[in-house]
Amino acid sequence: MALSVCVGAAQAQADTYPNASIGVIDVQKVLTDSAAAKQARAERDKYLATYQGQAQKEEKALHEAQAALARETDQGSESFKKKRQDFEKKVGAFQTRFTTLRQNLDRAMAQALGDVQDMVVRVADEVAAERGVNLVLYKSQVLLFDPRMNMTEDVLGRVDSRLPKVNFPNPEQLPAPAAPKN
Q1: Which SS3 state, helix, strand or coil, does residue 13 take?
Q2: Residue 136 has what DSSP assignment?
């Protein structure tokens, strides 16, 4: 009698709480190896090269302007002070412009990789359902696991087929980030 009560209690618990079937995904591998992520990095690198070329030209012009100021003979005059202020404004504008471009480039990359991550989640859900998996963990969260639990290659293949490329927004056309709410 006691045995049947224990078995009945165990059966009732089994009906309400499923046994874990675990899958593991190496999301970093997908974000590194997927076609869309590679394309996004290539576009980021093109923008970065363009910005670096522009920055070098502007830095050279600023160095030349600074050298011209240093050659001025009457550095105490009002005209020199005005030139110095104009130069400092140009330096500030240069720094602000390229800081903003770099931040926008980072935001554009984050948006593009966010699209890849969204697809990873959708595809992982499908692969998990097909395999009967009810718990998916990031590989970085797991110390040891049976290789049969690894869903990475299936997910990567499907992400590549469904999202071969991603929209990489033009960093110069991104709206300013929203101000933090207090």
Answers
A1: helix
A2: E
Q: How far is CA 156 from CA 36, 43, 84, in A?
A: 11, 21, 56
* Distance, CA of 105 to CA of 43 (rounded, Å): 10
Contact status, residue 99 vs residue 111, Cβ threshold 8 Å: no
Of 151, 155, 130, the C-alpha closest to 142 is 151
β-bridge mates for residue 138, sequence order: 25
pLDDT in tens, 135-171: 999 999 999 999 999 999 999 999 999 999 999 999 9
Please give the Cα distance from 152 to 147 (Å, whole number).
10
Rounded to whole angstroms, the Cα distance separating 155 from 24 reads 10
Global pTM exceeds 0.85: no
